[in-house]
Amino acid sequence: MDFRIPLFDLNFGVEEEAAVLAALRSKWISMGPNVRELESEFAARLGVDYAIGLTNCTAALHLALKALDVGPGDEVIVPSLSFVATVNAVRYVGADPVFADVKSLEDLSLDPEDVERRITNRTKVILPMHFGGFAADMDPLMSLAQERKLAVVEDAAHAPASKYGDQSLGAIGDIGCFSFFSNKNITCGEGGLLTTDNKELATRVKLLRSHGMTTMSFERAKGHATSYDVLELGYNYRLDDVRGSLILAQLGKLDEDVARRSELRRLYEEGLSGVGEISVPYRNFPHQSSNYIMPVVLREGGSERREGVRRAMAAKGIQTSVHYPAIHRFSIYERFGTALPVTEHIADHELTLPMYAALTGSQVREVCAVLKECV
Ligand SMILES: Cc1ncc(COP(=O)(O)O)c(C=O)c1O
Q1: What is the pLDDT of residue 220?
Q2: Looking at the predicted structure, is the pLDDT value of residue 149 above 80?
Q3: Separation of 85 CA from ligand 1 center, angstroms?
Q4: Which pLDDT belongs to residue 219?
Q5: Catalytic residue (one of 66, 184, 206, 253)
Q6: What is the structure's pLDDT at 126?
Q7: How far apart are CA 184 and CA 9, in angstroms?
Q8: 3-state secondary structure the chain
Q9: Which residue from 330, 349, 343 is spatially nearest to 100, judged by alpha carbons?
Q10: CB neighbours of 205 closer than 8 A, spacing ≥ 6?
Q11: What number is the average pLDDT over the span 47-74?
Q12: pLDDT tens per residue across span 310-326
């Protein structure tokens, strides 16, 4: 179906075309100087010591848990209101996910009080996800982690350029994980990146990214190294230089993209004010957000009503989505299931409205008017 107002749109132009062309013409297309430049720019933006380019955010989450030595018998506290990759990574290392609820219809990130209730002597990591680019409640989560000697891995897939106070998301916990999947604020189709201030973790992640090998093919091709050893069982999770060039070009547009999205977000908040049947999460949120998506939550009616609203909006040419089906309800995660009343309400009542830099103010007003009518 062709939508008049799609859910998202890529912010690509001549900059991206030129960057990719230059990468192709350089004749070095696997991991090399572009990825290195991306890593140093990303690290500088966030104020972290290390940024490591990877094939995607799922790989970043996997290597984060591997590097922290999480394994069978360990527990990781996760939201169920996320993309399934957040929790799959826990299973990749053989650990058990422990689902905690999110705060409320107004704040869709992990509830620190529920996280605290779910800590056991097997808990090793708290893994908050910054929903839509809006910061999870990091102060209480970090205090809890410090008190109970747990690591924190931030799933910052939605959150490039997002903040918590003056701290960048992805730079607060032990490790941050970012996604450059095709619907994200900045994208290269498939790509990801891991951030940390911890030298030991960074060294381990770099090793695991490339088969556990001590040198890279770029270094060998350039004569900086001639041989390599293999220190542990690693993976091929490298980001390539064509994608690296694309993300570098996108990174140059990120601040402008985020400023435009904040303006659109303000228009949405205005357009949906006083509609009692709808909660607009993160209204007047105090922290800078990437505004990756524009979620709204119906107060009642269940998933059938929500799907009815989505169909009616689609009939008017407006694409919507759902973030997210609850992970603990998926067949493979049922055995880890638990009561998560807020998550379940949101999973059945949330719909996501169009959000991208090229969206116009009048389109936002139209989406608001159609939503009100359909509700
Ligand atoms: C919250 C969250 N975590 C992790 C991922 C996985 O990212 P990737 O597709 O880059 O592996 C996504 C992707 O959409 C996501 O939304």
Answers
A1: 83
A2: yes
A3: 6
A4: 81
A5: 184
A6: 99
A7: 9
A8: CCCCECCCCCCCCHHHHHHHHHHHHHCCCCCCHHHHHHHHHHHHHHCCCEEEEECCHHHHHHHHHHHCCCCCCCEEEEECCCCCHHHHHHHHCCCEEEEECECCCCCCCECHHHHHHCCCCCEEEECCECHHHCCCCHHHHHHHHHHHCCEEEEECCCCCCCEECCEECCCCCCEEEEECECCCCCCCECCEEEEECCHHHHHHHHHHHECCECCCHHHHHCCCCCCCCECCCCCECCCCHHHHHHHHHHHCCHHHHHHHHHHHHHHHHHHCCCCCCEECCCCCCCCCCCCCCEEEEECCCHHHHHHHHHHHHHHCCECCECCCCCHHHCHHHHHHCCCCHHHHHHHHHEEEECCCCCCCHHHHHHHHHHHHHHC
A9: 343
A10: 52, 63, 64, 67, 194, 196
A11: 98
A12: 999 999 999 999 999 99
Quick check: CB of 82 below 6 Å from ligand 1? Answer: yes
Average pLDDT of span 365-372: 98
Query: What dotted CATH number matches 255-374?
Result: 3.90.1150.10
pLDDT band at 215, cuts 50/70/90?
Answer: confident
Q: Where are the domains of the chain?
A: 14-251, 255-374
Residue type, 313: M
Mutate to test the pocket of ligand 1, among 8, 83, 155, 292 (most ligand atoms within 8 A of CB): 83
Query: pLDDT tens across 78-102, in order?
Result: 999 999 999 999 999 999 999 999 9
- Cβ(257)–Cβ(357) below 8 Å: yes
- Is 184 one of the annotated active-site residues of the chain? yes
Question: 221: pLDDT confidence band, cut at 50, 70 and 90?
Answer: confident
Confidence of residue 218 (pLDDT cuts 50, 70, 90): confident
Domain at 14-251, CATH class: alpha beta
For residue 155, which atom of ligand 1 is closest to its CA?
Answer: 3
pLDDT at 279 over 80: yes
Quick check: CB of 83 below 6 Å from ligand 1? yes
